[in-house]
Write a structure and sequence with these properties.
about 325 residues; alpha+beta; Alpha-D-Glucose-1,6-Bisphosphate, Chain A, domain 4; 7-stranded antiparallel sheet; about 50% helix; elongated
Length: about 325
């Protein structure tokens, strides 16, 4: 027997309504001491409950099918994502990073919902308790608090050129046209792309501005300098200078959850004509799920760095 239109609307609509409601509650600034969407509670439990609701509201014969329990929860998740994007509740880049986790936990929730539906006489009670859990667990998570963590992104590239030519392109990166932008992940996430970098002089204490699109500017101060060998610099992104349209609020550089701290260029001689240019950056995350966020943050930083290194290589090797 096919599902009726009413049943389909309930199976999809109720989980989406729950997801929108919990997102609104967890996003209220006045309740930020208790709830936050940037929490394990929200990221793990809300999609789990979405999946459990979708399957529990389905027919018993469907809930007995493991494939149904795993896949059907994805429908309300995708609809929820679409609604939050259309109404600018969440940003594209944020969803790309979170969606794999959401889909996985929604499937777990679907299996839980199937278990409640087919093997528990008091399934409604168990489901109700599950739906209320985030409101009790989140305050505990808030009390425990986020533990800041510092991470490193490391990249390098081999360049056949003179050290003078390579280093001149390190200290001052001339404007990068759109067609020379080779970023992949950052372009897909619609993050700002590097435009140019300017250093006022070569030496400790020098000021450097790394300018990106969409109004993003990194203010850098040289902390350690050895000409044509090494340059270490602090990095500061003033969040009040960044237009509100540049980033989703949850991934704003210099914001509450993510910040870039320092960078290092090091030039290593491989032979008489080839050099290896190393680029390191250190960044800080302050979330309760650094174990997951650090993967994405490192991939993003490495993509930015590889993009810049490829530009330097192309210009240094140009005759």
């Amino acid at each position: 027997m096919k599902q009726s239109t009413k049943n389909i609307a309930i199976i999809i609509g109720v989980p989406v309504a729950y997801a929108l409601a919990i997102t609104w509650i967890f996003g209220l600034a006045s309740w930020s001491d208790l709830y936050s969407v940037m929490s394990i509670t929200f990221l793990f439990l809300s999609p789990t409950i979405i999946g459990a609701l979708a399957v529990f509201l389905s027919r018993t014969e469907d809930a007995e099918n493991a494939a149904y329990c795993i896949c059907v929860p994805w429908i309300p998740v995708f609809l929820f994502v679409l609604i939050t994007l259309l109404f600018s509740i969440e940003g594209w880049g944020c969803w790309i990073m979170v969606l794999p986790f959401f889909l996985f936990t929604a499937s777990i929730g679907g299996l839980i919902g199937g278990y409640f539906k087919t093997r528990r006489k008091r399934g409604k009670v168990y489901l109700s308790v599950l739906a209320l859990l985030p409101f009790f667990i989140s305050p505990i998570e808030k009390i425990i608090g986020a533990i800041p963590g510092t991470y490193e992104a490391y990249t390098y590239i081999d360049i056949t050129s003179s050290p003078e030519k390579i280093w001149s392109n390190v200290t001052r990166v001339k404007e990068i046209p759109q067609e020379q932008d080779r970023g992949t992940l950052t372009k897909f996430l619609r993050f700002p792309r590097p435009v140019k970098a300017e250093l006022d002089f070569r030496g400790v204490g020098a000021r450097r501005e790394a300018i990106f699109s969409m109004g993003l500017v990194f203010h850098e101060t040289v902390l350690e300098y050895s000409d044509m060998e090494k340059m270490v610099f602090s990095i500061k992104a003033n969040r009040y200078e960044i237009p509100s349209t540049t980033f989703d609020e949850h991934v704003t550089i210099g914001g509450e959850y993510f910040d870039v701290l320092s960078g290092t260029y090091r030039l290593q001689k491989l032979n008489d004509s080839k050099y290896r240019l190393h680029l390191y950056s250190n960044f800080k995350l302050t979330t309760t799920f650094n174990f997951y966020a650090s993967w994405w943050a490192r991939w993003i930083m490495e993509d930015i760095q590889n993009n810049i290194l490829q530009v330097i290589k192309a210009r240094a090797e140009k005759k």
